[in-house]
Structure formats: C-alpha cells, structure tokens
Task: inverse folding
C-alpha cells in the first residue's frame, strides 16, 4: 500500500480479495471524482453497481458468511444501504455531467430506494438531495418535479429547499467533512456500530463574479448511517454470539465437572470414565466456541463525505472563475480547503454539472 | 485405555472437520466458461432491472403491434417515421436508444418496406455531405440545391415508468413500457401499446 488511493485502489481491485472488489471500487471512484477523473469513476461505479444490482438469490459466500464458523466479512462487500445509496448518487452526478439527466434521475431514485426498507420506518427513504435532484431532472426534462420536491422538503432538516429554476445551467454538487466509520462492539464484536468523525466544516460558499451563494448541507451521511435501525444480519450475529457464549460456558462447566468426577477415579472406575468423557466434551465445546465467529463486518467505504449539498447558478457562456470555500460553525472559511475552479460554459442551454469536495484537488478546469 | 483414546479422537476429529468447512474455498474458483445465451432468455446473472430478455419481448410485441395498424398496413406509400428517444422514468439507468433501435430494426427487417425510418441521428453527417455536394467538392447524382431531406409523417416514441417496492420479503420492480406513434401533422396518437414486466427477488440475509 502506498497510501495513494488512486494507486492502491486499482491494485486492490485487480489483485485483492474478490470479496473486497466493490469496496475498493467505491473508494477509488470517490477519490477519482475529487481529482476530476470522472472517466475512471464512471467505469468503477458502473462495475460496482452491476454487482450491487445482481445480488438476488442464493449466494454461497453470503450463505457461508451467515454460518457459525465464518466471519460476516467473508461475503462480497456491497456496503450498507447508506453506502449503496452514495454509490448510486455519485453515478447519478456523473450521468448528469455526461448530459443524461434521465439516467441521473434513475440513479437518484435508486439511491433513495436503497434506503427504503429501514427497520426504523420513520427514517426510511429520507434522503433529501436524491429526491430534490430527481425533481430537478424531471423539471429539466419538461416534466413535473413537484412530487419529488415535496418529498425532499418533507425530509429536509434545517434547510429551506428552493423552488426549481429551470433556467439555471450550472449545478454544483458539494460535499464536505468526513463520513462515518464502522466499528464493532459486544462481547464478541458482534454488534455493528457507526462512528461519526467530527469536522469543523458545517457549510460552504460559492463565489463567482457578483454571485455569493451559501450552501447548507442537504444530507448528513452520518445521520443516514445511524438511523436505519437493526439489520437481519444483526440477529444472525447475535444468535451466533449466544451460541459462542453458551458453548464456552458449557465447555468450562464440563471440564471442571469432569475433573472433579475424574478425581474420584481411585475409588470408582466408572466415575473416572465419566469424568474423562465430560472433560473431552468440554474441550470439544470449547473448540466449537473458539471456532464460532460472530464478528460483524466492519469493512467501510471510508472516504465518504459527511455532508452533501447542491447549488444552482445561471452563468453566461464563457470562462468563469469560481471559488468554493468551506466554512466552520462561526462562518469562517478554512483557507486550506478553499477550491478554485475555472468553468468553461460553452452552451447556456446545456447543463454544466460541477462536483466539488473539500477533498478536491485545486485548481481544476472543468 | 483404548476406549479413552477413541473418546479423545472423536471430538478432535469433529472439531477439525468443522474448522475445515469454515475455511472452504471461494465460489467457482476455476471460473465459469463463457456461455452463449439467446438474448430472449434469462441468464444466470439476473437482477430486477431491465434486461435483454425484457428488451426483446417488449420490442417484438411493439413491432408486431405497429405493423397491424391501418395507418401502416393500408398506407399507399410507406409512412415516414422518426424516432424520438424514450423517456426513462424508472429507477434503472439504461441506454434509452436501445428500445427504439430494436423496434426499428425489427420493422425494417420484417415489414418488407412498409415503413420508412429517417436517420435523424445522422443529420450532422448528412448535412456535411450535402454541403460538400453543393460546393462541388464531391459528385452528386441529383441537384444538391434541391431539398430532399424528408419530413416525418409519424414520431415513434415511448415512456418507461416504474414502481418499486422493498420490504422484508424482498424487492419488487414493476415496469410499464408504453410506446406511441404520433401523427407529426396533427399530434394525434394513432397507435399505442404497452408491455408490463414485474420482477421480484430477495437477497441473502447477509445483505439485509
């Protein structure tokens, strides 16, 4: 590993464990987008989403990952629903960049769909930006995006979503802050948990010419990761943990009992054999317990952002210099994260989609 | 003593077998050879989205349906049709030209000239060629200054709409493939037909 995701990612995709291929595709695609390498991100996401779309039905590795003696991380990684949603979201952004707002809309709908069966119904399908962009794409395509806008507004927290501006020809997709990490708790690390990483960045500001646009977060990926409720797999792992604990306790009890009984061997030959049997049964139980692996799968798409948002602008054809600042809670920009973009608007009637992250390379010409 | 050794070996063997099962190899370690499939059959790689068998079934149905309408079957001269890209409103990104391309090829190959399609998607190249002829840069078999590009009698277009549900029982995707033939002069819809496909699937519990 070199530490450079654009070196490590392709190598891990080609040479790493097949079960981790999608994980590395996700990570590499996100990094590529931040460096303006959208061709690379497109191909990686396309392949990852093919895997994601074809997981129905029996899968021997997934079945084994549910077994007592195989770790959950044995299964092919496709990510938790918030990770899958972000994969569709990124692909949708690239489709729109490529002038395919209908396919972008399809991806935004799939992103929302990934979140639609949350155990906690209150938080099912509650992404804001995918719905908002679904409606914006529909409006741009000449349809009625009001339903999607209504859904987005219903789910929006602490942000007032503007009406659609059909004439806006520049769409900024903005992301910032570090996304969630997974970790495991419980006696046997069988409980999957998400850790939110703190970030001083809470908003962004886009400036070009006389335009000064404030960009508040639409979606918090940490929130999406932590509000889905339990998984079916959590019950499987909890049962495995109970089994592991029970076999371990039984093993201890059998070994101790057997040893006590066997200690009567000098006085009673039968007791000696029973005692030895108990010790052996206890050892077998301890071996079974030790072989049981209820550890939760903590493989994480670890370069996701915390916040995603958007802004729309109407820019005339020509070259425009845009500055994107990321602000802390006091509204002060962090100079280290300020991005300078040179936009070449060739056609006022053609949407220009700009992706900018606090992790983006700068300057970029788009 | 012999009895005790058997008692010792038995659980150890069992544990070894169990441990061995836990580390068995990956699925299809040697790969799966390339299998040629018919486009209208479901392969071993399947999702709930739009797949080749759906494309074939839908476009075959539409091509047959179009040929039966009086505007096509009884037209004294072949009607001129232009393809207008389908509107994909599903949650599945697709190449939206695929459906109309296949309907066009089916009609062109099976209708014995009952329909004429215009290559509007090639207009840039066609106009360039015409301009070369007008400039005398290339030969022309007719007067290049005469407008010969045809106008359409009909537009063939369609809409793909979806309804998706996900519950504990699995994922369900219903897609309505609706196609229309629109009179370019009057805007009347002279033909419309639809196909419906519903697919359901449930992923392994490890993914739920």
Result:
């Amino acid at each position: 590993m070199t530490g450079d995701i654009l070196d490590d990612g392709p190598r891990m995709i080609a040479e790493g464990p097949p079960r981790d291929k999608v994980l590395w595709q996700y990570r590499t695609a996100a990094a590529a987008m931040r460096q303006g390498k959208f061709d690379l991100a497109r191909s990686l996401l396309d392949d990852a989403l093919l895997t994601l779309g074809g997981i129905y039905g029996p899968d021997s590795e997934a079945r084994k990952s549910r077994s007592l003696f195989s770790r959950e991380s044995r299964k092919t990684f496709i990510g938790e629903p918030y990770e899958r949603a972000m994969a569709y979201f990124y692909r949708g952004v690239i489709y729109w960049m490529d002038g395919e707002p209908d396919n972008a809309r399809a991806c935004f709908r799939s992103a929302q769909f990934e979140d639609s069966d949350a155990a906690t119904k209150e938080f099912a399908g509650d992404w804001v930006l995918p719905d908002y962009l679904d409606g914006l794409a529909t409006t741009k395509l000449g349809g009625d995006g009001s339903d999607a806008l209504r859904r987005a507004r219903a789910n929006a927290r602490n942000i007032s979503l503007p009406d659609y501006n059909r004439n806006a020809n520049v769409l900024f997709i903005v992301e910032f802050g570090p996304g969630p990490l997974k970790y495991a708790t419980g006696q046997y690390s069988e409980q999957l948990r998400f850790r939110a990483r703190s970030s001083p960045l809470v908003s962004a500001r886009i400036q070009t010419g006389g335009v000064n646009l404030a960009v508040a977060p639409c979606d918090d990926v940490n929130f999406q990761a932590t509000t889905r409720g339990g998984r079916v797999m959590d019950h499987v792992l909890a049962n495995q943990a109970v089994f592991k604990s029970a076999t371990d306790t039984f093993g201890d009890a059998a070994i101790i009992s057997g040893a006590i009984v066997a200690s009567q061997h000098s006085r009673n030959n039968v007791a000696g054999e029973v005692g030895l049997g108990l010790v052996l049964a206890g050892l077998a139980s301890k071996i079974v317990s030790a072989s049981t692996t209820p550890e939760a799968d903590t493989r994480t798409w670890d370069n996701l952002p915390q916040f995603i948002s958007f802004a729309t602008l109407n820019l005339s054809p020509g070259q425009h210099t845009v500055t994107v600042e990321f602000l802390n809670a006091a509204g002060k920009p962090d100079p280290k994260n300020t991005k300078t973009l040179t936009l070449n608007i060739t056609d006022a009637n053609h949407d220009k989609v700009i992706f900018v992250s606090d992790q983006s390379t700068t300057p970029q010409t788009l | 003593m012999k009895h005790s050794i058997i008692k010792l070996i038995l659980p150890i063997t069992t544990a070894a077998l169990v441990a061995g099962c836990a580390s068995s190899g990956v699925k299809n370690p040697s790969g799966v050879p390339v299998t040629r499939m018919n486009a209208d059959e479901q392969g071993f790689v399947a999702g709930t989205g739009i797949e080749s068998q759906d494309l074939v079934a839908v476009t075959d149905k539409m091509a047959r349906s179009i040929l039966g309408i009086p505007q096509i079957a009884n037209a004294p001269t072949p009607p001129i049709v232009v393809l207008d890209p389908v509107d994909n409103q599903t949650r599945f990104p697709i190449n939206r030209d695929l459906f109309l391309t296949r309907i066009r090829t089916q009609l062109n190959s099976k209708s014995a000239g009952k329909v004429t399609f215009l290559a509007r998607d090639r207009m840039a190249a066609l106009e360039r060629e015409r301009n070369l002829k007008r400039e005398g840069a290339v030969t022309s078999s007719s007067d290049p200054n005469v407008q010969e590009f045809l106008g359409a009698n009909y537009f063939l277009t369609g809409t793909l709409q979806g309804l998706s549900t996900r519950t504990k029982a699995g994922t369900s995707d219903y897609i309505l493939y609706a196609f229309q033939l629109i009179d370019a002069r009057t805007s009347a819809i002279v033909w419309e037909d639809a196909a419906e496909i519903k697919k359901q699937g449930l992923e392994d519990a490890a993914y739920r």
Remarks:
- Helices of chain B lie at 2-22, 52-67, 70-73, 97-110, 123-134.
